[in-house]
Amino acid sequence: MDELRRAGVRAAEIVAGHLEGVPAGPVWQPVPEAGRAWLGGLRLPEAGRPLDALLDDVHAHVLPYPMGNGHPRFFGWVNSPPSPAGVLIEPLAAALNPSVAGGDHAGPLLERTVVRWLAELVGFPHPPGGGLLTSGASMATIVCLATARQQAALADGWDAREEGLHGRPPMVLYVTEEGHSCLHKAAQLLGLGARNVRKVPVDASYRMDVGALRTMIAEDLAAGLRPFCVAGSAGTVNSGAVDPLDAIADVAAEHGLWFHVDGAYGALGVLDARSAPAYAGLDRADSLALDPHKWLGVPVGCGCALLRDPAAARAAFSLVPSYLVDDNADDLGWFSEYGPEQTRPFRALKTWATMSYLGREGITRLVEHTSGLARTLAAMVERAADFELLAPVATSITAFRHTPRDGGLDALNRAVPGAVQARGNTFITGTRLGGRDALRACFLHPDTTEDDLVLLLEEIRLAAKTL
Ligand SMILES: Cc1ncc(COP(=O)(O)O)c(C=O)c1O
Questions:
Q1: How far is the CA of 29 from the centre of ligand 1 (A)?
Q2: What's the predicted TM-score (pTM) here?
Q3: Domain ranges of the chain
Q4: According to CATH, what is the number of the domain 92-355?
Q5: Which atom of ligand 1 is nearest to the CA of 235?
Q6: Rounded distance between C-alpha atoms, residue 357 and residue 351, angstroms
Q7: Predicted confidence (pLDDT) per residue in 202-235, tens digit
Q8: 78 lines ligand 1 (CB under 6 A)
Q9: Residue 425 pLDDT more than 90?
């Protein structure tokens, strides 16, 4: 234990020094050849090495080459900096190292609380047991869509778990053209077939065209298919758009469809008073995916599947062999009965720590600050002659493009993110939006300032000149 204690003190120093130094360093830098060779060519040592030597290696070869998302000028994809409370607490979860599959210990009890907190935070109905933490939203989506699939089968008088899908009318899932790839992956994995995922068109704000949804459902019913689920987005990854959730809930109710909401990134946007009206109807969903490892900043990986009816998820997943029967479990049983994972990490501890440290006020301030930055950047883009705003700001993402000349804008904007990243002063990623190559900046860092936005546009200009 002495070795662990001594190395632990040093590790804490290294962590604090690293985090302190992040803002002054490059946002991102490529790993040099020697570093690549070291990281990629390591051999398993024959004899074990002291803890101190491991810290030396991490200090020299790992910490200098981060992804960049700890930096206040990182605006790529949807990746937040780690919350200080999460960084502090994560080793304690490892020290306990439980499996939070179930059982009588702190892990399952705290996970229930944290899941309830997440539901309450965004105003989602929460019956006891109505959700579980997952590795991320991709896994949460699998939980929710598998639950929806089994509910549809049971409503039709059969059991998808027992029979498989063969010989049954194909079940159809509706997502928008802007729906996250994890919805498609989940549908494919669940045996629904990519061809049975409808891409509902979007309006000029990249929100689901609910009239088109109605038409598609009618066509599928007429063709003998089985519409079973519609998935709306509360914050798309491309532009941050929030689908018209209330109107989608109406359609789902009319047709008896499961209503899923992908709020992996954006569900917390409801805490910003200016954005909140767009979230009307979120509380009508049957399931909601919400990632604590995105806007909240809980260290990766922590997603959450929230379920209006926990019994539905249990019906889709519960399989308890004799060696796992727990006669002392309460009525809700084990978490492993609500999803595919058996051994489950103690994700609740870092989520509890992060939420407790910030409190509702701190979380709201973070969401307001970062949403405000997205709106400010949008206003700057609209004022600039050499930029064009591509979507209204709904959450904390600004979608835009650089327009310094007349032709070749797709090629230019496709090349800009890489060129900006290579300069090391800020980090942006690109996408395709409305048939055009676009830039998008996602704000999640509490320390990003308006000066950083000025620098971002300047960096894009400078990078574009080299292309
Ligand atoms: C809107 C949205 N949905 C789903 C996901 C998938 O989440 P995860 O990467 O946690 O599996 C993401 C990831 O960025 C996302 O932004």
A1: 24
A2: 0.97
A3: 2-67, 92-355
A4: 3.40.640.10
A5: 1
A6: 10
A7: 999 999 999 999 999 999 999 999 999 999 999 9
A8: yes
A9: yes
